[in-house]
Amino acid sequence: MGFPNNSVVSPPPDCLCRDSSTAAVGENPGQRPVPSPCVNLCRIAPETGLCVGCLRTLDEIARWSALSNAERQAILDTLAGRAEHPKQASRDAGSATQTPGWTP
Questions:
Q1: Is residue 103 part of a domain?
Q2: Does a structural domain hold residue 47?
Q3: Which domain holds residue 52?
C-alpha cells in the first residue's frame, strides 16, 4: 500500500503508529513505555523512504508496538541525525533497526 505523492494521511484513532499506552514487549507492565514520535503528519517521502512527520521508516512504524523500550529508544536516538541527513539515514535505517529474527 502506498500513499499518493504529496498527500498527508491522518492515521485512524486506533492507529498503532502512535500507540504508547501499552508496555513494550518484554518490559515490566508497570514501566512507562517509550512514546511514539508520531506527530500525525503521516506521509512517506519517496526520495528517502522516511515519514515526513516522524522520520521513521515504514518498517519501524509497523513494528513500533512490538518493540521493547530499548529498541524504541534506539530508534528515537537516530531521529535527529535523520533530520540532518535524510537520504543517508534512509539507506542506514533498514539494517540498523531490524529486530533480530524478524523478517518483513
A1: no
A2: yes
A3: 17-24+32-96
C-alpha to C-alpha distance for 31 and 21, rounded to whole angstroms: 11
pLDDT tens across 4-30, in order?
555 555 555 555 555 555 555 666 667
Q: Is residue 91 part of a domain?
A: yes
And the C-alpha cell for 35? 512514546
Closest by alpha carbon to 67, among 93, 33, 90? 33
Is the pTM of the predicted complex or chain greater than 0.85?
A: no
- CA 102 and chain centroid, separation: 15
Chain centre distance of CA 48: 14
- Name the domain count of the chain: 1
Q: What percent of the chain has a predicted confidence (pLDDT) above 90? A: 42
pLDDT computed for residue 71 by the predictor: 96
In the three-class reduction of DSSP (H, G, I as helix; E, B as strand; rest coil), residue 4 is classed as coil
